[in-house]
Design brief:
The chain is mostly helical. The protein has five helices and no strands.
């Protein structure tokens, strides 16, 4: 997979970057920053989704849809805190509207 890195993403390890930093970088077009967020939250979201839908294939489809919706929402997201509030049920996510 082709991955463009910005100065910020290339000088820090993914674990050193906050969700806020990653969201800001993703908003200005850094696909590597969004990829880190996907990697960071995929397991948690899959666990939550699979508990709701109880079907492995459907859970993967929903997970993909969640990240696609999050990606499309990047221009209107206001970074603050961490991405968990945007992806957890009951959070401030546009994904649950």
């Amino acid at each position: 997979m082709y991955c463009m890195q910005t100065y910020l993403a290339s000088t820090k390890r993914p674990s050193d970057l906050t969700d806020y930093d990653l969201l800001q970088q993703a908003q200005i077009g850094d696909p590597g920053a969004f990829e880190i967020l996907v990697e960071r939250y995929s397991a948690l979201l899959y666990f939550l989704i699979s508990g709701m839908v109880r079907d492995e294939h459907l859970a993967h489809d929903v997970l993909q849809r969640v990240f696609l919706q999050l990606y499309h929402s990047l221009p209107t997201l206001v970074p603050g805190g961490d991405a968990q509030g945007m992806v957890k049920p009951g959070g401030t996510s546009p994904l649950y509207r």
